[in-house]
Specification:
TIM Barrel; alpha/beta; binds zinc ion
């Protein structure tokens, strides 16, 4: 009887450890979708950079179209791209954390995933980057990484629409734009690390189409922090 009790307790704790962050994410994404629709907001986000080729191309396009975006940076790439970081900041974009090495919190040990999150934060601090938001790699959290982020006082930078720029095959960019239109705005997840030219061009093309749609529909285009001040 005693053993069964402890099996139930441990089982419950394990389920809670993995279910709680997931449930919190679902609730927050739902709220975010509602908020973007209510405020008519489009937020462009780019993960896994900065890079030496694609990120400057994205920055050129954003500058040309007068838009600001939020970049979720990987600590190990920050170290080799100080010029790009400076440019992002000078041009008014928001910088945020995406961990140090992009470890999936559900596939490595809890301790390694926590260290990855903490090192990602520490690298941004070391390079003088102020940040408010953290986006977990793959959107995955375990209880420890969830609590680590909360303890550091960061906010989770969720998204409402996935661009599919890492998928094989990639979706038609029109279908992504239509998904954002159906939602009446949103937070779009894209990537700005260097890959083959086709994928970079897909991101650039989608960025341009989304900004044109925002212009036609009269949506505000802003960073996550700017959007949170509208709440
Ligand atoms: Zn990522």
């Amino acid at each position: 009887m005693f053993l069964i009790f402890w099996i139930v307790v441990v089982g419950f704790l394990l389920v809670a450890a993995y279910i709680s962050p997931f449930a919190a994410r679902i609730v927050e994404q739902k709220r975010l979708r509602f908020f973007c629709r209510r405020e008519h907001v489009l937020i462009l986000t780019y993960d896994d950079g900065p890079s030496l080729v694609t990120t400057p191309q994205v920055l050129d396009l954003l500058a040309k179209m007068g838009a600001k975006a939020t970049f979720f940076l990987l600590g190990h790439r920050v170290q080799s791209t100080p010029e790009v970081i400076r440019r992002m900041r000078d041009e008014g974009h928001e910088l945020a954390s995406h961990s140090q090495d992009h470890l999936n919190a559900l596939k490595v040990s809890p301790w390694r995933s926590v260290t990855d999150v903490q090192r990602g934060f520490a690298t941004l601090v070391q390079y003088g980057v102020d940040f408010t938001f953290f986006r977990p790699p793959y959107g995955k959290l375990n209880l420890l990484t969830w609590l680590t982020a909360i303890r550091h006082g960061v906010r989770f930078g969720w998204w409402t629409v996935v661009s599919g720029d890492t998928f094989n095959p990639r979706p038609d960019p029109d279908s992504v734009v239509q998904a954002v239109e159906r939602d009446g705005g949103g937070v779009v997840l894209m990537h700005d690390f260097d890959r083959d030219e086709d994928r970079s061009n897909y991101v650039l093309d989608l960025t341009r189409r989304l900004l044109e749609t925002a212009h036609v529909r009269g949506w505000k285009v802003c960073t996550l922090s700017e959007a949170s001040r509208l709440r």
